[in-house]
Amino acid sequence: MDIATLMGLGLAAVMVAMGLGSHIGLYINIPSIMIVLGGTIGSIFTAYPMDKAMRLMNVMLSTMFYKAHNMAETIRQLVTLSEKARREGLLSLEQNLEEIKDRFTKKGLQLVVDGIDSELLQTMMETDMDLFEEEMSIQKGMLDTGTALAPAFGMIGTLIGLIQMLSQLNDPSTLGPAMAVALITTFYGAILAYILFMPMSEKLSRRSQIEMRYRRMILEGILSIQAGDNPRILEEKLKSFLTEKELLSYGGEALKESVEEGAVSGA
Q1: Span 81-109, mean pLDDT?
Q2: Hey, how many other C-beta atoms are within 10 angstroms of the C-beta on 62?
Q3: Is 65 part of a structural domain of the chain?
Q4: 160 or 138: whose pLDDT is higher?
Q5: What's the pLDDT at 60?
Q6: Is 142 a member of any domain?
Q7: Structural domain boundaries, residue 140
Q8: Residue 229, exposed/middle/buried by CB under 10 A (0-12, 13-18, 19+)?
Q9: Quick one: 1 exposed, middle or buried, by C-beta within 10 A (0-12, 13-18, 19+)?
Q10: What pLDDT does 178 receive?
Q11: Looking at the 3D structure of the chain, how many domains does it have?
């Protein structure tokens, strides 16, 4: 679960609610909600294939429910596999395939076990990465479309309200309430675009970058295993994919493991 997304949405909701005060009822208008929400979702369905548009809610939920990769653990796993491959041969890695949960890593190692040429393996894995990046781009594009269209439908709803208001100019007592209703759709459009769609799009963009870095690291590791590189060299190569924070964490965990192993040996 992504706590930052939930905290951000919660904080934004609280701030807006505080601004509304005790007059929340004034800001609830079902026809306005239908114009903005229905119009925006309808346009996203128009802009994207059905199978993609149907996943809009899942895409939005994915920004809140996401399990980050443990880069350090992945490096240790690849180093362990490299050591085994050098001792027992590449075919011995087939025994470990069932233990690997990550689909991309499992696919790469399966290709190694199958004896696929390194250039072909790299091409196949990079094609997989390109397809993943394309899918993430489509998901981000749907959210970007929502960011652009929600305020537009808010304005459309405002224009509809203004037309209705102007048609009743003979009754001045209706102008104030009618103007308030007309402006509510603009409010809904802004809320939908700038509290939901835009932040979620940015979160998805950042997550896509992290996922691609993770996959490039795995590809580098698999190619090194296939080439029979020294596990220590492999480890150093993979550590270059870590951020400074991740590198410090990796070093700390490695030191802890070393101390624990020394304690066991001493005992």
Answers
A1: 92
A2: 17
A3: yes
A4: 138
A5: 92
A6: yes
A7: 29-250
A8: middle
A9: exposed
A10: 72
A11: 1
Can you tell me the distance from the alpha carbon of 104 to that of 196, in angstroms, rounded to the nearest whole number?
30
Tell me, yes or no, if the pTM score tops 0.70: yes
Residue 5: inside a domain: no
Overall average pLDDT of the 185-214 stretch: 93
